[in-house]
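Page 47, continued from p. 46.
Same chain as before, 289 aa.
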Amino acid sequence: MSLAEKRQRAMQTRSRLPLDERCKLMSISRSGIYYKPKKASALNERLMQAIDKCFLDHPYYGVSRMTTYLNKDLGYLVNEKRVRRLYHQMNLRTIYARPRTTVRDKASYIYPYLLTGLKIERPNQVWQTDITYIPMFRGHMYMAAIIDVYSRKILGWSLSNTMTKEWCNELLIDTINQHGKPEIHNSDQGSQYTSELYLNTLKDNEIQISMDGKGRATDNIYIERFWRSLKQEKIYLNPPNGGLELYQIIKEYVHFYNSERRHTRIGDITPKEKYLPENKPTKVNYNYI
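Result:
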């Protein structure tokens, strides 16, 4: 049963069980049931939209530089403390345009980055995952997605108004069930991906764990390119007016991205054509916590 089917079953009103109990029985988190946008103050919503648009073109802008841009170029009057809080709320992590002279010791990483020099030559060899902020006409939501690096195909995605480890783990489980498991799973070092719940799912399925180096511009580049395409080609051209409309917009765009859009870097074919996995889908036992 897919994630969408589980959510539909959990939302059946005839059941006498409370919604929390239905979600536990279906092994899904309640945060993903309703496509209801998360709302902040009107000023914060405007700031986050401005930050997101700027960050797509300048992902090396740190808090100080973004604060200057907001104040000097856009005419806001905000301090670094507020911008830093919004960066955290939006799950933004500054990358660096050039190598830093001081490099963090690899031993201090939670898990090492395994993709350096790796020749990626087959589907389900490497998956990458990430979370991004999605602006809406009123409020915002978060989107998590998993991409197959070899084919650039989006294998799974989900919307939520909170960034919980259960939500991310639920997406991982559903994607493995549908497409089989990867050899290597790459993510950033966010709390969702370093949680015991998420790491145990990877370990239990014997998946190698790779994590980005802090501030590295190219470590998670494939999923970052997808975020950029989604927002610039769809979200900002057609701001959704509600959670259900956002869900439909993203569903249509992912279908277009996977099945119709030709990608130059994979030989001018679609990700769907490139993705021909040898591994059969694997059913994963998962107890929701």
